[in-house]
């Protein structure tokens, strides 16, 4: 039987304190093939720099970072970006849904997305958007969570190993 999972919002101080765990999750995800904006080879220094920038964005009120904690250890994160143009106060962007490979297939990603949707509602957001690599397991996951696919953009990004991939754009009203 697995231990319960707690969902928390990370402050900039929490991000600094838990930087090794956050770095581990991001390195594990990228090295596992996740298309989350980084290329191989992926050095932990890039992950540290990424999380430090995220902490500054949280401090500026531009995003919220939610984390899943099990047995005192961070096992997953997701971000709600709210720093958008003034004509889009009702919208938020979902970024970097990451679950460490040791904790996958336990419903952690779904818990994080449900919490993110609740957080978005609390912040007055009614439309959420995200994008993911077309044909990925993430695409299937989002559909199962009730997200609607708006379309695909061919040759949008590179996978971590360098192959071009299309991106699927999703939205959900919350």
Portion in beta strands: 25-35%
Counting H and I runs of at least 4 residues, what is the number of helices? 5
Task: Report the CATH superfamily of the domain at 5-124.
Answer: Gcn5-related N-acetyltransferase (GNAT)
Q: Major sheet: size, sense and barrel closure?
A: 7 strands, mixed
In the CATH scheme, the class of the domain at 5-124 would be Alpha Beta
Strand order of the largest sheet: 1-2-3-4-5-7-6
Overall structural class, as computed from helix and strand content, comes to: alpha+beta
Net shape: globular
Name of the CATH architecture of the domain at 5-124? 3-Layer(aba) Sandwich
Q: Which quaternary structure do these chains form?
A: single chain
- Let me know the number of strands: 7
- Terminus-to-terminus distance: 32 Å
Could you tell me the mean pLDDT? 97
Low-confidence stretches: none
Kindly identify the CATH topology of the domain at 5-124.
Aminopeptidase
Q: What value does the Rg take, in angstroms?
A: 15 Å
Relative helix content = 25-40%
Give, in order, the helices and strands: EHHHEEEHEHEE
Describe what this molecule looks like in 3D.
The chain is of the alpha+beta class. The protein has a domain at 5-124: Aminopeptidase, CATH 3.40.630. Helix content is 33%, strand content 34%. It has five helices and seven strands, in the order βαααβββαβαββ. It has helices at 12-17, 19-31, 44-59, 108-122, 137-144, and strands spanning 5-10, 63-70, 73-81, 91-99, 127-133, 148-158, 164-173. A seven-stranded mixed β-sheet has the order 1-2-3-4-5-7-6, sandwiched between helices. Helix 2 crosses helix 3 (44-59). The N and C termini lie far apart (32 Å). 30% of the residues are buried. The model has no long low-confidence stretch (mean pLDDT 97).
């Amino acid at each position: 039987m697995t231990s319960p999972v707690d969902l928390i919002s990370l402050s900039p101080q929490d991000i600094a304190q838990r930087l090794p765990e956050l770095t581990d999750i991001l390195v594990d995800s990228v090295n596992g093939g996740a298309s989350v904006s980084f290329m191989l080879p992926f050095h932990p220094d890039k992950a540290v720099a990424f999380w430090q920038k995220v902490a500054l964005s949280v401090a500026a009120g531009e995003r919220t970072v939610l984390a899943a904690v099990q047995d005192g250890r961070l096992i997953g994160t997701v971000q709600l970006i709210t720093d958008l143009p003034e004509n889009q106060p009702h919208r938020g962007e979902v970024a970097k849904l990451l679950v460490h490979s040791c904790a996958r297939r336990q419903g952690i990603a779904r818990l994080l997305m449900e919490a993110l949707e609740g957080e978005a509602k609390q912040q007055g957001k009614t439309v959420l958007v995200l994008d993911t690599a077309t044909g990925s397991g993430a695409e299937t996951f989002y559909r199962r969570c009730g997200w609607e696919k708006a379309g695909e953009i061919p040759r949008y990004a590179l996978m971590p190993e360098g192959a071009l991939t299309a991106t699927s754009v999703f939205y959900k009203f919350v």
